[in-house]
Amino acid sequence: MTEHVLLRRAVLFSGAALLGAYLVLAGMTQAPLNPVKLHYYDEINTVTEPYLSQNWMLFAPDPLTDDRGILARVKCESGRVTDFYDVTRTYVAQAQHDRFFPSRLNRIVSGTLTQLDTPDPFLDRLRKKEAEEKKRPVPLLPAEKTSRNEAETFLARYSLSQLPDVCDGPPAAVQVRAYVRELPSWSQRKDASAKGTTRYQDLKWRSAEAVR
């Protein structure tokens, strides 16, 4: 009986210690930008954001005003480069055909696209102010570079898993084109001729072996 009680207390103590450590790390993610947060960013990110970046945009009160997606192309071992394939269309079609249990892949991709160009809110305001004053903006911090690199790697890996077999063998490299289509304004909702604007960015080529 004594051994059972000691084991139970040890398990409870270990669980409480792990929970306490996680809450401390989670609290640091919400703290203002400071030297400690920058120094331990990688360790905090590994624990609290193992897959996707989390931020307050999850609770954004503004409705969606754009349509986001990705295209991708590959380079074969022979050196041939394929056309761009619409990687987004596949999971959108799956979601539209299954209203009761739709795929959540669209959230993964759209969330990663947001991670590409979502800087720290404080730094974003600072850079905009410096741009208005025609000052040299603050360069990207190591944490921002890490976040962007992780997003690009994930999009490349996901694209490879969705592309058809266009090469005789495994592809050598993959390139992702991320696009954002700004929807017409609400005031133009009844105007059939209203069109939005589309902007895109081609991410750098990545070795297929490196992103698998």
How would you summarize this macromolecular structure in one to three sentences?
The protein is of the alpha+beta class and 212 residues long. It is built from eight helices and five strands.
Structure, explained:
By secondary structure, this protein is of the alpha+beta class. The protein has helices spanning 2-29, 35-39, 41-48, 88-96, 105-116, 121-132, 142-162, 208-211, and strands at 66-75, 85-86, 173-182, 197-202, 206-207. The protein is globular, with a radius of gyration of 22 Å. The model has no long low-confidence stretch (mean pLDDT 81).
Indicate the mean pLDDT: 81
Strand content: 5-15%
Query: So how many helices?
Result: 8
Parts with pLDDT < 50 across at least 5 consecutive residues = none
Main β-sheet description: 5 strands, antiparallel
What is the terminal separation in angstroms? 50 Å
Q: What gross morphology would you assign?
A: globular
